[in-house]
Structure formats: C-alpha cells, structure tokens
Design a protein that fits this description.
heterodimer, A: about 525 residues, alpha/beta, Rossmann fold, 6-stranded mixed sheet, 18 helices, 20 strands, about 35% helix, globular, B: mainly alpha, ABC transporter involved in vitamin B12 uptake, BtuC
C-alpha cells in the first residue's frame, strides 16, 4: 500500500467560547484526493472546527499542518493562500451582482478590472468540473443550487485545492444533490481534497471515502465508508443505540378538517406565489408539504393563518370538530380566526421573527397566546408561568428558569421545543408547522416527530412543511408536492418513492402529468376504501 | 422682420440667459447628490448633507473673508485666493464626514438620528459664524445684513455664466460614475453597501471603505456649499438657504437611482425649476406658488420612482444599517 499523504492534519485543536468548550484536543486528518465526511450532532463542534481551518476562528491550542507544513491561519485570506476554501451554509453573495462580479470580489488581480477575462476563466472552470453556470446572470435571478455553484466556483477560482462544504445538500433537491456529488467526484479526480459536513447519513455513505465523527466537541474516531452503515454511524454519533424509525400508526378517526380550494396568492409585485392550490387536510393525519425552497410553502401556511391576502376565487373552509359546522376563513385576520373559535396553531418558519420574542422569557412568550383571556385589566402572570413549567417538563427543555432568562439565550432546539409546546398546548384541531426541525439535531428532531405523531393520533390535522424528503416519506400519511406555487401532485407517503417526489418538485408547469399523478392517488385511495 | 422671427429672437435671448443660470443653480445640487451617492454606496445614509454643505460654505467664506481682510486687495495672490477658501471648505466638510463616520461606523449609532443632528448642528454653526462675520463688519447690501467677499469671488465666478467650480462639479460626477462602474475599488465599495458581511468574508476592509467613501462624499458635498455661495449668491452671505439645496440633493439621489451620470442632467432640470419663478415674472401674489414648483416636482418624482420594480434601481441593500462582524 502506498503511503497516504495528508492534505490537512489538525493536531490537538482546542477552542473555547467563554466557559464552553467547542472543540477539545481534536486530531483530524484529510488525505490528499479523498472525500471526508464530518459527522456529528448539532453543537458537536463540526462547524467550529472547520471555521478554524478556514480562518474565521483561531484555535486556542493545537497546530494545523497543510501538506505536512505547519501553518498559522489567522484570517480567511490566509486560508486562501494555503489553498483552503470553505463553502458556508449561508451563502455570502451580493444579490445585484452577476456571478462573475461575485466570484472576483475581493481579489487583487493585476491590471484593470476585466470582467470578460474573468468570465472566460469561470467558463473554463465550469467545463472542467461539469458545472452549469451563466457568468452574467444576476444572483437574485438564481436558484439556491445555482447560488451554491457560484460559491464553489468562487473558491476554485482562487485556486483552492482543499474544499470544505458545510451542509451543502440541506437546500437541494435529490436531483441537484446528485449533480453536486458528480461535481465533487470530478474535483476529487482532479486531485482536490474535500471535506463535507452533513446530517444525512445516506449521503455520507454515498459520496465519501472516509467518515470522521465528532461528539460534544470531541473526536470519536473515523471509519472507512465501505465498512459503515447508517446504524453504526448513528450509534457512534450519538454514543448509544438510537432507533431510526419513525413510528407511523394509522389513525382510525379521520374526517375533513380543512378544505382549501383554488387558493391563489399574489405578492406585492403581482406575481402569483400560489396558483390554484386545492387540497384537504384530515384529522388524524399528517399532511406533508414538499417542494424546493420558495415554491410557495410559506405563502400557503400564511394564507391559511390569515397573514396573506388571497385572491377572490380562493376558498378556505374549516370544519369544526365538535359541531361539524363549516366556516369560511377567507379574509379573516389571525385575531378574527381566534375569536370565531377556530382552533388553528401555527409554528412558523421564522422562529424569532414570527413565532417568539427573543428578549422575553419563556413564560412571557407563552403569555403571548393567552393575554386576552380573563376579565381583569391586569395581566394574569401566574397561569402562563405554570403552563411554561409544564412545557419545560414535558418536552425536556433545558433552561435554568422559565421567568428570568430571555429566550434568545437558549439553544435552537430548546427554543423550537418551547414554540411547538406552546402551540400544542392550545389543543388545536389544525396544527401547521414549517420546517419544524430545521437546525435541530437528530435527538431533538425525533422528539418533535413523536410529538406531531402524538397530536395526529389525538385527532389533530397536522400540516408538516419539511425539506428532508426521507423524513417526509417516513412521517407523513400523504404528501402534497408544490412546484412554483402549483400543486404538482398529492401522493400517498406510504407507497411513493423519493425519486418520484423529487421529480415532482422540479416539474415546472407540466400540468398534464402531475394532474394524472394526483388522480392516480385518488384512485388508489378509493381502492383502499 | 416677421412676427415669428421676433418671437424666435426673444426666445433665444431668454434661453441664452436662462440656461447658464440654470446650470449655475444646478451645480450645488450636483455636488450634493454626487457626494451622497458615493456615501450611500458604502451603506451609509448620510442625512447630514444639508449641514455638511452649510459647513463647507461657511468654512470657505470665513477663509476668504480672513484672507481678504489680512491685507489690501492689491496684495492678494490669485492662487492663494482660490486655494484658501477651497482648503477651508474641504477641511470643514472633512471634519463633518469624519464625525459622522466615527458616530455611525465606529460607535454604530443610528444613522438617521446622527444625520439629522448633523444637519441641525451644521446649519446652526454656519449661521452663527456667518452672523458673527456680519456683526464684525456691520455690512449691509440692499438693506439686508450681509457680507460679500468681493475680491475672492472674482477668482471663482464669471458673473452670469458658470465658472470653473461648475465644470469641476460635472467632471467629479463623471469620475465618480466611472469609478463605481468600472474599477475594482468601485465594485468592492458597492459590495460593502449591498452586503457588508459578504464583502468582509471576501477580505474587503468594510470599515475603511465606509470611512473613505463617506468622508470623500462629504467633501464633495461641502464643495457644493462653496459653489452655492460663489456661483449662485455671487459671494454674498446673508441667510442662504443651503439646507433646501441639501435636501433636494438627497432627493436627487433617489430620483437618479444612485447614478451620478444621470444626476448631471437631473440636477440641471431641478436648477431650472428653482429659478423658473424669477424668469417667468408671475403676477404678484402667486409668485410663492411658483417657488413651490421644484418641491412639488420632487414629491411627484419620488412617487413615480417608488413604483420602480427593477432590482438595479433599488437602494443599496444594507443602506442605513450598521455592520457588526460578530452578528452572524
């Protein structure tokens, strides 16, 4: 066996943030020409470790070697000089600039600014690795996947031969992910070394040569991908055996709870964000909503919650669980919806923007839902506090107290538990969640999945907007696929495959075929009955 | 001579006196808007422009006044007579720009509040200094308390046609337009104003770009104040309404969608509107309505341009926001 050369070797790396240890004496090696997966739960220190390699943080202790030379990386500029490039989870691009302008931003090439020359070099890079890119396209016209391409080319343009990708697939469709992996393999063939951070185990198994695992800031070990499987990786990551299956019981009592017909929503510029969307949400059922980011998911939930103006032909019908009475929600604002006795709960995508107030305590955030109750002109502080304590106990929220510490100081997972807990405590009959597990680790995610399933079994109609297709397929009963604001199909989550859903997500305005898919599903349902 | 021929001659005569005056009136506007465009491209919304123009004007006037009174007119050196007011003006507006940057970039104070206070401060200090100079000399012209820097103005103004300060304004506007569009530094400045976090990650020194663009922008705007005194007021200082010019200049920035090249024509149009009432001889009693025209047009224009949808015509994305590196 030939000797392996190390592109990167990190030795005894330790990083503190205040009293918290983010990384504790970590030793990591990246071999030349390999794809290494860095795996770990949220808060296990993956991104911190990679940020030290790319010059955003500076390690407290330890030494980094690049191609076996000891180096000091103090800024992103230093990192570039050593050929290290990192593609961050949140893209750093200027919207009104073209791809070319973004790629050469901050570079000090000799001579005058020459966009044509730069565009030519970008074309060469894209042909070499199989990217598809128009150098003159403005970033605000680009899809998420195209923006990611710009980020990767930006790094390659600077001559990086060590690439770090931080959760690159979180926002991509399965097809786009395949393309990205193909590009990654081309880069590997070209002699580049890559590190990919991801939560998705099947992707780890598919793309990488070796997996390195972090847990709570410590390096657990590495395995060759060929010798690993999903279960063994999870066990290493969490430190104990974890069940990866989501329990999906079938509820017996299903009834129509929410019926949406011809829902059309236009944005301020008059562009249709939702176009003639019709579906039913049943009690005792989780209806998943899949689609590429920005396909109308947010508008759909907000239209139902009364936060988006809807076009006149739209109809949103609510069926009261007790009386069975129909109620039209068109044109009602959230306050009217509450006053008319409709039990609607909404866990929005933007936790701190719409769901919670970061500078208020847990109890005060719970109070936001109840301050109108009671006749006294003074606020009832006591019952929200009791409810807050109940949520903290039931959902195992880690917090020193419920009425002193501002919510912003809790970790993302705990914040999400408070939000979901508060909405569930309203005993809703329709529960809508948008990206409820975004940014949460595997354990917390499963807590949330179980909560939603529990609600479903209690006869709640749950609407779950998600981005991880594997989860959607395991958690939901039916999946509505949105594509460019239109329904490209409603499918049975128990029988559909991931590839089919992925295809429906990208089939833009091919009305014929998706329609058929929807009909097929209906037929299938009839047959079952 | 036919009747239409007479009309033609009158029209040409009118335009021959009107257009140069409109251009003279336009140049302070052009300086102000060019300076503000450069500033806003760095993400700083400097509402202190009217105050800065005031300070630039009074600094220049004070410099000229002191030089004129330091010896007899015969001893005056043409070079110094230009250089002293110019330098005083640039130093005054430099200090104002520096103060604005220190407050908003280094201390991260609210840009709107800072800008408005600087306008109040600049207006106040200019009127205080101007009033003091008037008190010292007890000077009057046409019954209004005022001072005139008679000797200095000869080196600046050409009487009723635009002087060199006006042409310099056009040259500066063109240079700024070329800088923003075609140079590497211009592109990086635009990136700072759009998305400072991105610029920072690309290795651009955000603080330095913000300071430089804002201070240079202030100095350009300050020249506008000096230009107003020398060109429009012919070297006379009584109670100039430079703040009006400053606000119009800020409106012009929006009107031209942050394009200094377009601003050359737009400011001439506004300059024409500003002096329209003097030239049309409106009946007594509604003259005031005519002086309203530029402001009414500004309102209309702002309404129309607010309907623009194109992304390129929108303000820099991070305009008015302070940048913290730690806040990721």
């Amino acid at each position: 066996m030939e000797a392996v050369k190390n592109a990167v070797r990190m030795e005894g790396i330790t990083k503190h943030f205040g009293s918290v240890i983010a990384n504790r004496s970590i030793n990591l090696e990246l071999h030349e020409g390999e794809i290494l997966s860095l795996l770990g739960e949220n808060g296990s220190g993956k991104t911190t470790l990679m940020n030290m390699l790319s010059g955003i943080y500076y390690p407290d202790e330890g030494q980094i070697y690049i191609h076996d030379q000891p180096v000091t990386i103090k800024s992103p500029k230093d990192a570039f000089e050593y050929g290290i490039g990192m593609i961050h989870q949140h893209f750093k691009l200027v919207d009104v600039f073209t791809a070319t302008e973004n790629i050469i931003l901050g570079l000090h090439e000799p001579g005058m600014l020459n966009l044509k020359r730069a565009a030519k070099k970008i074309k060469e890079i894209s042909e070499r690795y199989g990217f598809e890119i128009d150098p003159n396209q403005k970033v605000y016209n680009m899809s998420v996947s195209q923006k990611q391409t710009v980020e990767i080319i930006k790094v390659l343009y600077r001559g990086a031969d060590i690439l770090i990708l931080d959760e690159p697939t979180a926002v991509l469709t399965p097809q786009e992910t395949d393309k990205l992996f193909a590009v990654m393999r081309n880069m590997q063939k070209d002699g580049k070394s890559l590190i990919i951070i991801t939560h998705k185990l099947h992707e780890v198994l598919e793309v990488s040569d070796r997996v390195a695992i972090l847990r709570k800031g410590e390096y657990i070990g590495d395995v060759l991908t060929a010798n690993a499987n999903q279960q063994s990786l999870t066990d290493m990551m969490v430190g104990r055996a974890v069940s990866l299956n989501i329990d999906r019981p079938k509820s017996q009592q299903t009834a129509e709870r929410l019926k949406v017909e011809h829902l059309t929503v236009k944005d301020v510029e008059g562009v249709k964000r939702l176009d003639d969307v019709s579906f039913t949400a049943n009690s005792g059922e989780i209806l998943g909503i899949a689609g590429i980011a920005g396909s109308g998911q947010r508008e759909l939930l907000e239209a139902i919650a009364g936060l988006q103006p809807i076009e006149p032909e739209s109809r949103i019908m609510y069926f009261d669980p007790k009386t069975g009475k129909e109620q039209l929600l068109n044109g009602m604002d959230p306050l009217k919806i509450i006053r008319s006795g409709v039990l609607l709960s909404f866990v929005p995508e933007d936790r701190f923007g719409m769901g919670l107030v970061g500078s208020m305590t847990i109890a005060q955030n719970v109070m936001l839902r109840s301050y109108r109750k009671g006749r006294s002109p003074l606020l009832d502080q006591q019952s929200p506090r009791i409810l807050a304590e109940k949520i903290v106990n039931d959902l195992e929220v880690v917090t020193p107290n419920v009425d002193k510490i501002p919510l912003r100081r809790l970790s993302g997972g705990n914040v999400q538990k408070v939000l979901v807990g508060r909405e569930i405590e309203q005993s809703p009959s329709v529960l809508m969640t948008a990206y409820a597990v975004r940014g949460l680790d595997i354990n917390t995610s499963y807590t949330i999945y179980n909560l939603l399933t529990e609600q479903k079994m209690q006869g709640v109609a749950v609407i779950y907007v998600g981005e991880d297709l594997d989860v959607l397929l395991e958690l939901c009963d039916r999946i509505l696929v949105l594509c460019g604001g239109q329904v490209s199909g409603i499918v049975d989550a128990r029988s559909v495959t991931k590839e089919q859903v992925g295809l429906m997500m990208t089939q833009f305005r091919k009305t014929g075929e998706p329609q058929k898919t929807a009909n097929e599903t209906k037929e299938a349902e009839h047959e079952e009955q | 001579m036919t009747e239409s021929g007479t009309f033609f001659t009158v029209l040409i005569g009118f335009l021959a006196s009107f257009i140069p005056r409109a251009i003279m009136q336009a140049m302070p506007l052009l300086y102000g808007s060019t300076g503000e465009i450069l500033t806003e491209k760095s993400g700083n919304l400097n509402l202190g422009i009217p105050g800065i123009m005031f300070v630039g004007a009074i600094a220049g006037v004070s410099g000229a006044f002191l030089y004129e009174h330091s010896g007899s007119a015969a001893q005056m050196n043409g070079f110094l007579a230009v250089l002293i007011p110019l330098l005083c003006c640039l130093v005054g507006s430099f200090l104002m720009g520096l103060l604005y940057c220190f407050l908003t970039v280094t201390l991260r104070a609210n840009q709107n509040v800072t800008g408005l206070s600087m306008t109040i401060f600049g207006t106040g200090i200019a009127q205080f200094l101007g009033g003091s100079l008037i008190k010292i000399t007890h000077a009057q012209s046409a019954g209004v308390a005022s001072i005139t820097i008679t000797e200095t103005v000869k080196y600046f103004s050409n009487g009723n046609v635009p002087g060199w300060l006006a042409y310099t304004g056009i040259v500066i506007a063109i240079l700024v337009a070329l800088f923003l569009r075609y140079t590497r530094a211009g592109m990086q400045l635009r990136a700072v104003g759009e998305n400072p976090a991105t610029a920072d990650a690309a290795g651009i020194n955000v603080t330095r770009y913000k300071y430089l663009a804002t201070i240079i922008g202030s100095m350009i705007a300050g020249l506008g104040g000096l230009c107003f005194v020398m060109e429009c007021a012919h070297g006379t200082w009584s109670e100039p309404r430079i703040d009006q010019i400053g606000w119009l200049a800020i409106a012009l920035v929006i009107f031209t969608a942050w394009r200094p090249g377009v601003s050359i024509f737009a400011s001439i149009m506004f300059g024409a509107l500003l002096i329209l009432s003097d030239h049309l001889n409106p009946p007594i009693g509604i003259k005031e309505l005519y002086t309203l025209i530029p402001y009414v047009v500004t309102l209309l224009v702002l309404i129309i341009v607010s309907l623009r949808k194109k992304r390129e015509d929108q303000p820099p994305q991070s305009l008015g926001l302070a940048y913290f590196r730690e806040e990721r």
